[in-house]
Design brief:
The chain is of the alpha/beta class and about 250 residues long. It has two domains: about 140 residues, Rossmann fold, CATH 3.40.50; about 80 residues, no CATH class. The protein is built from ten helices and ten strands. A six-stranded mixed sheet has the order 6-7-8-3-9-10, sandwiched between helices. Helix 3 crosses helix 5. It is globular.
Length: about 250
Amino acid sequence: MSTASLTIDGLTVDFSGFRAVDNVSTVVDAGELRVLLGANGAGKTTLMDLISGKTPATAGRVYIGDTVVTGLPEHAIARAGLGRKFQIPSVFRELTVRQNLEVAASPNPGVFANLRFALPGETRRRTEEILDLVSLVDRQNAEAGTLSHGETQWLELGMLIAQKPKVILLDEPTAGMTEAETMKTAEIIKQMRGAHTLVVVEHDMAFVKEIANRITVMHLGKVLAEGRVEDIEKNQAVRDAYLGSKGIV
């Protein structure tokens, strides 16, 4: 039987009478990779902001596992097990790739303390695993500021994994990538699936079809449809909602 990693129950936010997210409910199982789809303004990023505590909810609840995190500050929600990666990566540019991962993986949050003293064996082993997962073994001694856009995104993804969050939110992880980088990112994320619970906002349907377990389609702040990729492609309400746009299927 599946265990929920993330439960969203009636989540709503009202901005002076405008409901950007309107009574959204869904359950993301442990190890699942859920993709959020929808046109600009559908409420996807606002939903991520509500989950992570960046925006306070007007109504509804968010659970990480069995813990209610609604109304908690962002750092407390992060401590409860939520990790979020934004479109613009944030890494320590002057440190090497390996040092970035060691800092993220270390139980001691002090950056310079981590670099000055010998790291625990478990931290070193974890760093090696992540370097391999995000395909940066050959770049581990390069300064992060010298990485390509795609490599920087993979490094930040690795830093997020190193912190061992229960749920990972990814906001358009392939934005600005070449086709080759996009496909490599798909391979990395597919390897994360199962070991990690992920919620991904993405527009690239080729990428979505490559990675998704289930898709939640949002429209005007509400859940329009939810299901497997093949179900969403056949859904008439989804087709109608995106008729005349680029479409999502």
